[in-house]
Amino acid sequence: MSSDIKYRRILLKLSGEALAGKSGFGIDVDEAESIASRIKEVSGMGAEVAVVIGAGNLWRGKQGLERGMDRATADYMGMLGTVMNAMALMDVLERANVFTRVLSAVEMRAVAEPYIRRRAIRHLEKGRVVIFGAGTGNPYFSTDTAAALRAMEIGAEVVIKATKVDGVYDADPKKNPNAKKFDELNYIEVINRRLEVMDSTAITLCMENKLPILVLNLWDPHALPAALRGEQVGTLVHD
After folding, report:
1. What CATH number does residue 152 fall under?
2. What pLDDT, in 10s, does the model give residues 103-113?
3. pTM of the model
């Protein structure tokens, strides 16, 4: 294992929209292959990589709720969507010769291994990329919270939140050219300023367990490797 990386074990949090391409919906194979190439690169650097992916490209529970759908039903549908995304990402990684396992919090043995903490850690130790599907397995919790929870369970040193901007700003940089980028923030600032890093449950969980969150632009080909080398990239949320 390489000795010149800052983080040995990372958890990468992806939105479902990351797989969607320009349409914003469905699974774009080119986007999936692009993400897989980033993961393969950092895995090759010696990092142990776990992934949590959302389902916003396949199902938006908010639309169901607006029409009176039961919240738990909407959330379970979202969990199933994350497993579909996990399988798609697994496929492109395996085709890139990266050994990958999907572990699902909702049992579906025909398509994924059941989530067992020690099994997940063993896969990581063997150099496999582990993708966690179905969130926490419980309704009312987001995939942000699932990412924070799984990161702590497997002993990850950082949660890397993948976005399409190069960090956290005090306003939308696409709408406000004077938006200020933060290099560092503490958890309380993120909550008080209502900055859209992760949801408040996930932020609080990370704060209570002193787990840093690094927000970076995954579509910058240099950002993720640079972060692993300990260079200043994106925005670091920590104590």
Report:
1. 3.40.1160.10
2. 999 999 999 99
3. 0.94
